[in-house]
Amino acid sequence: MSTAPQAVDVASARPRIRPLRWVAGAALLVLAAQFAWFLVTNPRFEWPVAGKYLFDPNILRGLGMSLLLTVIGMTLGSVLGVLLAAGRLSDFKPVSWACGLYVALFRGIPPLVQLIFWFNLGYLLPRISLGVPFGPTFVSWPTNSVISSLTAAVIGLTLHEAAYMAEIVRAGILGVDGGQRDAARAMGFTARQSFVKVVLPQAMRVIVPPTGSQFISLLKGTSLVSVIAMADLLYSVQVIYNRTYEIVPLLIVACAWYLAVVTVLSLGQRRLEQHFGKGQR
């Protein structure tokens, strides 16, 4: 005669010992301690020098320029990206193909190459003119007087960012089920009301996370403008260490400011994700 197995009280059950986790945790702890010891005891980091230049006026002006380029590039890139996304979703094939070609072109060319190209635009186009195509010219300017370091940086970052934002916006809109639009139209909403009140709020849950990541990537990408003598954070650091030869501590200053700003932006991105993700797990 068989006996029924005894019931096990799950609440009193002991967690299973996982020795590999203990080994991995101990290894990580040892590596962290070794890295901290390396940072503290290596005199070549020159921490006092890094502290001296952390709030240097030139460094802060460079940081401000990096933030300004990020905001301008992201704002203009987002506006252009929305237009490109609308073009790619258009039923008019020539517009859709042209927008698709733009996205493929500016996503495929590295941003550093684009910045150098726009900075040297005067070699291909000595003068920038306004007038009738293949007709008379109304006004013109020397290209080198128009395309400065700032102008080249804004153009390069904006056009590059617009290509990525176009795909982000397009993916967000396509991520909303088509039945949502049909239901909104059945309730008497116009096409504009359907998009603003039904499609866009749902698409924002898909759009916001990668947009925040793009903003952070653009902030770090502004360091590329130093190659065209734009006085951003990295360029300001380079100017100082080229004079003092204190390369490592000045690079630590740049890393500290990039990490600080990115941390703040990441917190803001998390709040936005929570706001637009209400009701979703």
Automatic annotation (TrEMBL):
<feature type="transmembrane region" description="Helical">
    <location>
        <begin position="247"/>
        <end position="268"/>
    </location>
</feature>
<feature type="transmembrane region" description="Helical">
    <location>
        <begin position="223"/>
        <end position="241"/>
    </location>
</feature>
<keyword id="KW-0813">Transport</keyword>
<feature type="transmembrane region" description="Helical">
    <location>
        <begin position="97"/>
        <end position="119"/>
    </location>
</feature>
<dbReference type="InterPro" id="IPR000515">
    <property type="entry name" value="MetI-like"/>
</dbReference>
<dbReference type="GO" id="GO:0006865">
    <property type="term" value="P:amino acid transport"/>
</dbReference>
<protein>
    <submittedName>
        <fullName>Amino acid ABC transporter permease</fullName>
    </submittedName>
</protein>
<dbReference type="InterPro" id="IPR035906">
    <property type="entry name" value="MetI-like_sf"/>
</dbReference>
<dbReference type="GO" id="GO:0043190">
    <property type="term" value="C:ATP-binding cassette (ABC) transporter complex"/>
</dbReference>
<dbReference type="Pfam" id="PF00528">
    <property type="entry name" value="BPD_transp_1"/>
</dbReference>
<keyword id="KW-0029">Amino-acid transport</keyword>
<keyword id="KW-1003">Cell membrane</keyword>
<keyword id="KW-1133">Transmembrane helix</keyword>
<feature type="transmembrane region" description="Helical">
    <location>
        <begin position="59"/>
        <end position="85"/>
    </location>
</feature>
<feature type="domain" description="ABC transmembrane type-1">
    <location>
        <begin position="63"/>
        <end position="266"/>
    </location>
</feature>
<dbReference type="InterPro" id="IPR010065">
    <property type="entry name" value="AA_ABC_transptr_permease_3TM"/>
</dbReference>
<feature type="transmembrane region" description="Helical">
    <location>
        <begin position="20"/>
        <end position="39"/>
    </location>
</feature>
<feature type="transmembrane region" description="Helical">
    <location>
        <begin position="139"/>
        <end position="160"/>
    </location>
</feature>
<keyword id="KW-0812">Transmembrane</keyword>
<dbReference type="GO" id="GO:0022857">
    <property type="term" value="F:transmembrane transporter activity"/>
</dbReference>
<keyword id="KW-0472">Membrane</keyword>
<dbReference type="InterPro" id="IPR043429">
    <property type="entry name" value="ArtM/GltK/GlnP/TcyL/YhdX-like"/>
</dbReference>
<comment type="similarity">
    <text>Belongs to the binding-protein-dependent transport system permease family.</text>
</comment>
